[in-house]
Design a protein that fits this description.
heterodimer; A: mainly alpha; 10% strand; B: seven-stranded mixed β-sheet; two-stranded antiparallel sheet; globular
Chain lengths: 176, 378
């Protein structure tokens, strides 16, 4: 392996050797403790493997969300993607987990495609850009086209066995 | 009355105050003086010279001659103006809108009319977004009452019609840096980020017709000169995006009823609103600032001073189309035979008659409002 690079973690760039404990400290977030995992388990039955294997490891106010839910309240899910090219397996990690949460907690999901952000930040994506970004624009702000593409991508991996295998591969890579 | 100290002139998109020196503005903003040839060419296409052209309401311009050239070559041309909906519409606002109606008819031009409810909401502490949007539709009635063509007029609420303007707005925004916006509009680091973004939306309308129709269309903006900073940044980026630079024709500010400054919605006693009950408007006229003398005796002897008189300005800009009648009024004033009370009474009657008619048109506009709102490209 090459010499140690200083890790960079911003909304636009992630590189270098990531020290997750340091990130938690720097961003001021909390670790997902065994106690919190136990609490989640009460709702999910068996813990999702991404929780068991520590793929999701840190949080803010997840306990407050559980308090709210256990008090009879509802909560919504929000995640998203900056569409600047094809979706890779790494992107599917949070989406798969989001689907899991959606199923367990019956939550609505708001999924934002930040096609504007991609276009504003990146010099190589412009009016004549290619790929998902243009598809998104053509689909209008609601990104219908983009959703369709996403659904297709997910469908391709839908076979249970195949999906498990692929995600396991991805997780292993992340844990390396 | 003694000569008062001149008040410092302030002309920005958010504030116009003090004694306006148009020559200084023309120099400061780097625009061209209006010419007789431009007025003549417009009149030739319209079939008549609009009162506002005869009376020098339009004092300066940028590339209006080029816009006319393009039209004369047989090319389609477009118009763009707008309003920041923060209250009722007053007579000063109507000046360029009436002129847009005249130009729309003369040049068979589409008019894109932007309601910057987003900007008003972002800049004003006392205005909720819901109220700004409500005012967009309320003020649209005034726009429609000016007689514009529903087939060729596209009113845009920045907030409600964002789906029609966001994409082009992004392309514009990507070309404008924070430091440019800061410098041009005098923003500071404590201003909200919406205020930084808004200029992109105001700029993009210059290219909207070209974008929607897939053909570069010269755009002329009739508006008061205080909006000029927006067009300066738009002109800087136009060619990079493959569009023509927008042309401008700048209107003077209609003076308020009080001494100095323009008619201002933030000082209701100085402005005649289109929604004022005609009697209330008449009262405002009766108590307005004039160029009269302290006593009747003095005025009979010395005559009035139409050159500083707001009542005369109203005849001049809006309520006396007949040049001969205007000259007679001026002479009668200067000779001392026409006193301010009588002159104000005559103006009050005209203002009342105007409002009765305009308010009826405004009421009718409610039925056709939707026809004027921007629609998706077919």
């Amino acid at each position: 392996m090459a010499g140690k690079e200083a890790p960079v973690v911003t909304p636009w760039e992630v590189k270098g050797k990531i020290d997750y404990d340091r990130l938690m400290e720097r961003f001021g977030t909390e670790p997902i403790t065994p106690e919190l995992l136990e609490r989640i388990k009460r709702h999910t039955g068996r813990l999702h493997h991404m929780l068991r294997r520590g793929v999701f490891y840190s949080h803010r106010d997840l306990d407050a969300i559980l308090d709210h839910y256990e008090g009879g309240g509802r909560f919504v899910l929000y995640t998203g993607r900056g569409p600047s090219g094809p979706v890779h397996l790494g992107h599917l990690v949070p989406w798969t987990f989001t689907r899991h949460l959606q199923k367990i907690f019956g939550s609505k999901l708001f999924f934002q495609f930040t096609d504007d952000e991609r276009m504003l930040i990146r010099d190589d994506i412009d009016e004549e850009g290619h790929g998902l970004y243009v598809d998104c624009l053509e689909g209008g702000i609601d990104c219908r086209e983009c959703h369709a593409r996403l659904a297709e991508t997910v469908n391709r991996f839908r076979g249970r066995h195949r999906r498990r295998r692929l995600i396991r591969g991805g997780v292993e890579k992340m844990l390396e | 009355m003694t000569d008062q100290e001149r008040q410092e002139m302030v002309v920005t998109p958010w504030e116009v105050s003090g004694d306006i020196d148009y020559n200084k503005l023309i120099e400061q903003f780097g625009v061209q003086h209006m010419t007789q040839s431009i007025a003549d060419r417009i009149a030739e296409h319209a079939g008549y010279m609009h009162m506002q052209l005869r009376r020098g309401v339009y004092i300066s311009h940028r590339d209006t001659d080029w816009w006319l050239d393009e039209y004369e070559k047989g090319n389609k041309v477009g118009l763009y103006t707008g309003r920041g909906p923060s209250g009722h519409v007053h007579l000063g606002h109507l000046l360029p809108w009436f002129f847009c109606k005249y130009l729309q008819d003369a040049f068979d031009a589409d008019l894109y009319f932007q309601m910057t409810d987003d900007e008003k909401f972002l800049h004003r502490e006392d205005l909720t977004l819901e109220e700004a949007i409500r005012l967009t539709y309320d003020n649209s009635l005034d726009v429609i009452a000016c007689g514009l063509d529903p087939e060729k007029t596209h009113i845009i609420s920045d907030s409600d019609h964002i789906q029609h303007i966001y994409k082009l707005g992004l392309k514009v925004a990507k070309r404008i840096t924070f430091s440019t916006v800061k410098a041009v509009f005098g923003l500071t680091n404590s201003d909200n980020i919406g205020a930084i973004w808004h200029p992109a939306l105001q700029a993009m309308v210059c290219f909207l017709q070209s974008d929607r129709e897939g053909k570069n269309t010269p755009c002329l903006i009739p508006a008061a000169i205080d909006q000029d900073p927006y067009w300066r940044i738009t002109r800087d980026i136009a060619e990079k995006l493959g569009y023509y630079k927008p042309a401008q024709i700048h209107a003077k500010f209609l003076p308020g009823l009080a001494e100095g400054g323009k008619m201002s919605a933030s000082q209701p006693e100085t402005a005649i609103f289109t929604t004022d009950p005609p009697k209330v408007a008449a009262k405002k006229v009766m108590s307005s600032f004039t160029g009269g003398r302290d006593t009747v005796e003095e005025q009979r002897r010395l005559g009035g001073r139409p050159e500083v008189c707001n009542v005369y300005a109203y005849y001049y800009f809006l309520f006396e189309d007949d040049d001969e009648a205007l000259r007679e009024r001026e002479l009668a004033c200067k000779s001392g035979s026409l006193l301010c009370g009588e002159c104000k009474k005559q103006l009050a009657d005209r203002v009342k008659a105007f409002l009765v008619d305009f308010q009826a048109k405004r009421e009718k506009a409610k039925e056709v409002l939707d026809d004027f709102l921007i629609k998706p490209v077919e």
